[in-house]
Every structure is written in C-alpha cells, then in structure tokens.
Structure to design on (332 residues):
C-alpha cells in the first residue's frame, strides 16, 4: 500500500522546510517522534555553527532521524558541510541545481538527497543526478513557488518519468488532510509534503498572529510583491490579508527603500523588517506584524485549528487508511 513509509521513515508524511526559521527543532522533532520526516531549514547565509546548534538541539528532542532543507539560491557551502558532517538523514534542496557531484558527496557521507522540483524537466535532471526521492511542488503550494503547473497534472508526469527507478515521488502543494493525501496516492505519489498545515501547529515557530490568520483566512494569491530585492524572480503564494489587499496594487520597486515596519531575530541575527520584505513573521517578530508577508498554500481554507504537529501526522495516516478502506476497497 502506498501510504506506508518512504526512505526508511515510518510514514510517507513530510514536513516541508519552512523558511526562514519557522521549522525549528521543536516542530521537526515533533514530526520525527510521530513517524514523519521533518526538515529544519538552513539559514539564508553561511552560519555553520548556528546550523550545527539547530541540528544538535533537534537531536536532544528526538532520537529519530530528520532532515535539513537548503535553498541553493543563497550562500550554502559551509552550511552543507555541517549537514554532511553531522550525517543528518536527509538533505532537501530547492531553487538551484541538484548536481550529480552534490548527490555523490552526500551519499559518501551517508546522507540521502531529495530535491523539490516544479517541472518535468527539473524532475528529469534530478533522476539523472541519482537523487533518493523527489518532491513535486504544484502551483497550489504556499511560500515560494518554482513552477507553473498544478499538482494534479504535474505529479503523474513525474511518476511516469521515474518509471522503474526506485525513487519515491512526494506530492507538495495544497495538501492539508487525508483526502489530499489519498488523492496524491491515486496520482502515483508515495508520500506527501505539507508546509502550510505544519505551520499552523503548536510547535511551529510562526508568530501567533500569523497562525491565527491561517485559521481565519481562506484566500491566497500567487504574487511577487514580497522580497524582490533579496530573492529576485522568486514568486510566492501569500495569504490575502488586509495589508496585502490594500498594498498590492500600489507600485513599488522592491523592499529596500520601504519603511521599517518591525524587527525580528532570524536564525540568531537581529533583522529590521521593511514593508514588502520576504521573511514571514516568526515568534520573535515585533512591530506591525499584520503587515508582514504571510505565505500559505491553497489548502489554507481547510485549516480550522492549531493542533500539535504529531496530531497532523496521525490524522493524515489514520484518515487515509480509513478513507481507502471505506471508499476504495473492493469488497466483492
Ligand atoms: C512559510 C513557508 C516557507 C517555506 N519555505 C520553504 C523553504 O525554505 N524551502 C523549501 O524547499 N520550501 C519552502 N516552502 C514550500 C514548501 O516546501 C512546500 O512546497 C509547500 O509548503 C507545499 O504547499 P502547502 O504549503 O500548500 O502545503 C515554504 C512554504 C511556506 C508556506
């Protein structure tokens, strides 16, 4: 049955790395302890000691394996070194070339490599590079969105491309509950990767106001209004907050010359948050938090409460088993 584990993990449930620091040790450990694959997120700058601290803190909270996500568009060589040196179970990479050399180096360290892709072309390159699994991101996804296609059409294409290779395909984008999970399995996925649902959990490092908005609001938009200077040509799916509706139509070049609307400590560094800046508010954010970027996937309207991350994993697994038994099992 497809709903069983992937990459040696108990279940095929993946908690996406959530930048800049929303998927911290508490969230990742909670997911790991529940049998899922949780990803820390490496800082956007070289910060090997800080990252090593995050990995060790997570290990103090769980004895289960977990992963780290790296956005290749940012400086990452020293961070990568720490991930391999610490022999974290899985390295997730996004927004950059997942080369054969990188995969080989990780494998030599005993680390599995899982890129997140947004097109069939990117998936083909990943297969050729020898990756261990592929996350397929549909345009429904929250956060930065690398491709243009919807998950329902892109996912089976990647499944077909993978063919007989032993490479589990993991679906990402708009999946929030067991129905989405079972739908992804029907399309050929072996697992699912959820971002927005895990952000709205007790253990996520998102600001309480951001978590509340994820419960209250249900509309998202594919946009490029946030973080144009720091991460150019990187569209994102954001929650349609009152700030977003009011300010989106107003022209602006980027966030650099915008006023400072608040402050946040991100991965150990004090940051000024300008209006239209990219980082979403973490628990330390102060100031006009309501006006900060709040990313979310199209499934956000299905999120009705903040629950523990372990419960998200349990509900997905038990719900999928029930759904398959009740609706898709031939009893004749
Ligand atoms: C706040 C937020 C931050 C994200 N940060 C990252 C990241 O740093 N690296 C990454 O590969 N994906 C990131 N993603 C995208 C996820 O990997 C995944 O594609 C997406 O969350 C799936 O869609 P969903 O949010 O509807 O579940 C982020 C998503 C959100 C909502």
């Amino acid at each position: 049955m497809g709903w069983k584990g992937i990459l040696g993990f108990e279940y095929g449930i993946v908690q996406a790395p959530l930048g800049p620091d929303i998927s911290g040790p508490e969230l990742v450990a909670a997911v790991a302890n529940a049998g899922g694959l949780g990803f820390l997120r490496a800082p956007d700058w070289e910060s090997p000691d800080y990252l090593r601290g995050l990995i060790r803190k997570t290990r103090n909270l769980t004895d289960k394996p977990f992963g780290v996500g790296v956005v290749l568009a940012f400086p990452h060589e020293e961070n990568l070194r720490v991930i391999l040196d610490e022999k974290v179970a899985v390295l997730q990479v996004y927004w950059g070339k997942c080369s054969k050399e990188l995969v080989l180096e990780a494998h030599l360290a005993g680390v599995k490599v899982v890129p997140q892709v947004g097109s069939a072309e990117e998936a083909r390159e990943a297969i050729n590079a020898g990756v261990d699994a592929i996350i397929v991101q549909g345009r429904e996804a929250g956060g930065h969105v690398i491709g243009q296609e919807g998950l329902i059409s892109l996912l089976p294409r990647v499944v077909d491309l993978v063919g007989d290779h032993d490479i589990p395909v993991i679906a990402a984008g708009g999946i929030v509950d067991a129905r989405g999970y079972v739908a992804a399995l029907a399309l050929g996925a072996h697992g699912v990767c959820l971002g927005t649902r895990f952000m709205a959990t007790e253990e996520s490092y998102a600001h309480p106001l951001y978590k509340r908005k994820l419960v209250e609001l249900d509309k998202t938009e594919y946009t490029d209004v946030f973080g144009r200077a720091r991460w150019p040509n990187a569209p994102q799916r954001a929650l349609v907050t009152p700030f977003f509706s009011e300010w989106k139509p107003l022209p602006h070049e980027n966030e650099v010359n915008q006023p400072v609307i608040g402050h946040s400590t991100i991965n150990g560094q004090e940051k000024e948050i300008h209006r239209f800046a990219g980082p979403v508010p973490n628990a330390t954010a102060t100031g006009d938090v309501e006006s900060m970027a709040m990313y979310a996937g199209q499934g956000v309207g299905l999120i009705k409460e903040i629950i523990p991350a372990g419960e998200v994993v349990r509900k997905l697994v038990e719900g999928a088993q029930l759904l398959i038994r009740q609706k898709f099992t031939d009893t004749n």
Notes: Residues 309-327 form the longest helix (19 residues).
